[in-house]
Amino acid sequence: MGWRPADKIAVALHNFKANGVHQLTVHIGDLLYVQEELDSGEWCRGYIFYEPSKRGIFPASYISIKESTSRNIGSERIVVPAGDELLVEATQGLREWRWKLRELYVRGSRERWRPLYHAMEEVVNWRRTLVSSNTTLEALQETKVKLSATIDEINRLSGCPLTPRDPATGAAVDSQNTSILELWRLHRDRRADSTSDHTPGTLRRQRKAQPHGHLHHLFMRIDSVDHPFTENSEIFFFLSIGGKDQLSERYLITMAKGSYRQPKSIGERKSCVFTDLGSKDIETDIYLVCQIVRNGKMLQDKKYHSQHSFRRPYAVGVLDVRTVLQEQESSETAEHIKTITMPLYLCGTNHESNFATFHLNVIQKTGAKGGQKPGCAIALSLRYAN
């Protein structure tokens, strides 16, 4: 007689006191993870779900198998109880916060113990309402909003990190399937909610009425650069809001000396994707900015010259992306690609000192007269993020 894998979640129906070395003491209501079952079905081997250090064998007749689901966290697969994720989070949180509450009480830190105690009482009350489900759908959603806000308040009081949540439901998001930028935005919004002066849940209900915008990716492909390069050059592309705030990282392609039209760069690097653009981003004054920097030596007829290479500003290009986005939305083709020529403006010696903000002058059409040259042929396409 041997053991077979079980991989199940169970709840204890009766108290069981261990009377052997390998047996596990369980109490009514304990959530158990059953790793293996005896072939006869009389005994199970596992551990208490929220206290993995307590493990052993226990009678199968003392437990009831609970519906469960599996999740992939990194390269590992874990089994968790099925049901409302916020309800499971509240249950697990109450088990963890009790130790913090006891620690504060023993230390005599009443000024920190009291607000934590009252907040835990609120979580118990909101959890009881969710378990009963004896309410309307609208009231149930409002309870979830209040419960998630109270959980975040307890995490703040106990020094735990805030949990990124879906602003529409209040449930914790899956960090494995959420982009880094979206996680940062969710953390920023949750921190603003927790530090603002309002009743927990008030601001979140206000946001609930707002549509949750989808993320977009902007695909860019450089087809050609209609300009002769007399020196090795670097071309940087990045997105900017209003020309003032940089929205993305800078994408680099290189142009070799004497090259014309086709970028002398690795084929895979002729295109890039600007990821995680929110609905608010694409509705603002968003521009694609191009900056060209030359790499060369000083002229020999100058008084001071050197054999070392120097990087000097050369040209700037600006493209209003809003027109492309508007055509993308009106197009029936999901992957509509539009090719546009971005004019280049030579900065000259007068604008080398303010090269970092020269693209702002181009947007405002000041200080860029007379320097326009044929520029880059760029293909753009807006893609919806999955």
TrEMBL record:
PANTHER family reported for this sequence: DEDICATOR OF CYTOKINESIS (PTHR45653), MYOBLAST CITY, ISOFORM B (PTHR45653:SF10)
MF annotations from Gene Ontology: guanyl-nucleotide exchange factor activity; small GTPase binding
Keywords on record: SH3 domain
Coiled-coil region: none
GO BP annotations, alphabetical order: small GTPase-mediated signal transduction
InterPro entries in UniProt: DOCK (IPR026791), DOCK_N (IPR032376), DOCK_N_sub1 (IPR042455), SH3-like_dom_sf (IPR036028), SH3_domain (IPR001452)
Domain SH3 intervals: 5-68
A GO CC term attached to the entry: cytoplasm
Domain of life: Eukaryota
A Pfam family of this chain: DOCK_N
Protein name, as recorded: Dedicator of cytokinesis protein 3
Disordered, as annotated region: 191-211
